[in-house]
Design brief:
homodimer; alpha/beta; Carbamate kinase; eight-stranded mixed β-sheet; two-stranded antiparallel ribbon; 9 helices; globular
């Protein structure tokens, strides 16, 4: 089977042009097929503020109304995605920027209203791994913005971590997949205040213990739940690392590697 | 050879959601392979104004500075492009939104500074027809925003008419190409004030006469120059028509058909 590395980068890297350039140089050096999924950073929030669009929060959760979705489509689907694609082209990576709507790669369903109406938010229904595999065979490198679409032709805001996980899992049909979550910490930490306290390997039992002890904090839980789910569903390796340590992390000499 | 229809739609259709929906329905009904190139309309100018970015004009020409390019990338490459893609998906057209940077489809060179520095404007250097053909063979419908890229990884603003013409010409290597320019008039008019005065067929000799007589006006000249250049370079048919008459125009029962 072909080797495929699916990498997710978070907003903090997107917001820092020098950090983004370093990350993209490392990404361009990865061997084998690659897919990048990016978040949007603070630019969307800043853009919304400049345009006088207020962020709606319900019970501490952000609601995506149509005007916020338009900003997300402009900033994530346009500005951030195309700048990354052009930079990768200059690094000799034949990148192709996509949302889930493009080539019907990631179909979603507008999240049903229960207690909260999240607005234009999409829960992933189906990844077209055949279509994505077709791009990879052509030596194209898909770069996904975290936007999906519904059958009725709506664009939908989708969590980038979830999108990375869903794409990685579906591509296991054709590849040995490594999924890498790059963020602002050096990995999963024993002590959130000590960046050198990286847990090198983490299995579900240890994860439960760290959660019970309160060592692994709120923000990390959905990320790790997503990550373990990917492993359980056929992804060979899941790594959580700092964006500056992508190359080392793929060689398992940095970051946290999850195991079953 | 396969039949390919390359269609360019202008900004006035983009700005009118009902007109855009009618146009996309007609576009989805075209038989054979299709490519769409869209302009951006007034949304980019409006967005720039809202963000406090002033449009720089030199000698009556618009200059694309970096902040204006960012707005164009957001609006054309993001909002407009992805909304069209999602709407086409709902019409069962497997659309893929692209800028020239995506899959290195349209490479350009930043326009050299002579009398005027146009800023971040790209003159097309090379269309990768092999790559575009590869999408067509996969039954994907490319939807291009009028943005290209340079080898050094800059995004560049490019005229949508020129981009449509360059793509149409290059795709003649693999296809019998029809190029359709859709705009707000019913075709090339004998009398600009009389929408029923459509010239059904126009050859270069007649074009020269109409120009000499002042019948064909300023805005139409670069469009028709582009159009005749496409015919001279292997495009089989060039049609200029109203966006509402796309289907009829492709059957040569509406609009102006250019001949050599």
């Amino acid at each position: 089977m072909q080797t495929l590395t699916v990498v997710k980068i978070g907003g903090n890297v997107i917001d820092d042009s020098a950090a983004l350039n370093r990350f993209l140089a490392a990404f361009s050096g990865l061997t084998g097929a690659r897919i990048l999924i990016h978040g949007g950073g603070k630019i969307a929030t800043q853009m919304a503020a400049k345009l006088g669009i207020e962020t709606t929060m319900v019970d501490g959760r952000r609601i995506t109304d149509q005007s916020m979705l338009d900003v997300i489509t402009m900033v994530y689907g346009g500005l951030v995605n195309k700048q990354i694609v052009a930079k990768l082209q200059a690094l000799d990576v034949n990148a192709i920027g996509l949302t889930g709507a493009d080539a019907s790669t990631v179909l979603a369903r507008k999240r049903p209203v229960k207690d909260i109406d999240y607005g234009m938010v999409g829960d992933i229904e189906e990844v077209d791994s055949g279509q994505i595999q077709f791009f990879l065979r052509q030596e194209l490198t898909p770069v996904f913005a975290p936007i999906t679409y519904s059958e009725s032709g709506e664009l939908l805001n989708t969590n980038a971590d979830t999108m990375a996980s869903a794409i990685a899992v579906d591509l296991t049909r054709h590849n040995d997949v490594t999924l890498v979550y790059c963020f602002e910490k050096k990995g999963v930490l024993k002590n959130p205040d000590d960046d050198s306290s990286v847990i090198n390997e983490l299995n579900p039992g240890q994860y439960s213990e760290y959660k019970a002890a309160g060592t692994i904090n709120k923000g990390m839980i959905p990320k790790l739940d997503n990550a373990f789910k990917a492993l359980e569903n056929g992804v060979k390796r899941v790594i959580i690392c700092h964006a500056d340590e992508l190359a080392a992390a793929v060689n398992q000499s940095a970051g946290t590697t999850l195991t079953l």
